[in-house]
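Sat 14:20. Reprocessing the chain from the morning session after the first attempt stalled halfway. Input below, unchanged.
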Amino acid sequence: MTPDDAPIRFAILGAARIATKVGKAIQDANGAELSVIASRELSKAETWKQHHGARLAVEGYEEALRQPDIDAVYIPLPPSLHKEWTIKSAEAGKHVLCEKPTAMDAHEAREMLAVCKANGVQFMDGTMWPHTPRSQQMSQVLNDGTLGELRRVVSAFSIQMPDTPDQHRYIPELGGGALYDIGWYCVRASLWAFADVPTHVYASATYHRGVDNNATAILWFSENRVASFDCGYDLTRRKWMEVVGESGNLVCDDFLSPWDIEKQRFWVHDQDGIATEIQSPSVVQETCMVESFVQIIRSKELSEYWPQVSLDNQRVIDALMVSARTGNREEVK
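Finished this time. Tokens:
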């Protein structure tokens, strides 16, 4: 156990591209230290260490978990490996920051979270934007009555995803597909805005190489609330969200990550269409996420919110995946 003011020492399990961003965030975050980079091939770990920094490069993820001075791990591996390495990390007493989607399905996610809880370690998935000051400012608008009763959440996330043989997002066995990968963020937007889980969902999708590469979804919540979104690998980059109430709406055209880091903003419109632009502090959202994770670990009081919202996100994605295949409205289980 580290002293209260000692940095939380991280190991990264895998040298994926996202590991570069989060690795820098660990280095920049208050109270965090990047100690170990692990790869299945030592040469890759050494190269990563040389270019991006870490105290130690090791061969194999197990070797990273054997390091006695590691407090937490970041798992940037494909979804098919999340369960195995979350459980092994938790059993080794390491707190777990794991990329999204949490798992291949909610059954796996429940097992992962149960092992984390049993071993007294924090679990958090890698959904970054809810940890930012802008997210907190938007939450205040949603909760202070400015928009009246909230009724709708509409969002979109699309990108151009290159179709290459080694792209795991096009490989079903590795957890590929637009709903798993980028629809996850739109689902989180609805859970975040309504502070609730939908009862039923519907999705329509097109498929490529066995995975959904474009999808449109509807989520039904209690009290006459509805969310909808589209996501896809075959459209221009979009990452916007609108939350609609009975007397106003909130719009953020880049809620997933700011187009311009110096202009982190959103708009509130009243019922007459008069818009107020609200500026937020310029921050790096990856760093905000790491700092949020570190604060929980240092508090020695595990947060139940982050594992639960991650599981709820997975439950909704599971139902959407079934609906996209069956063409039916599905219950969220």
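The mean pLDDT is 97.
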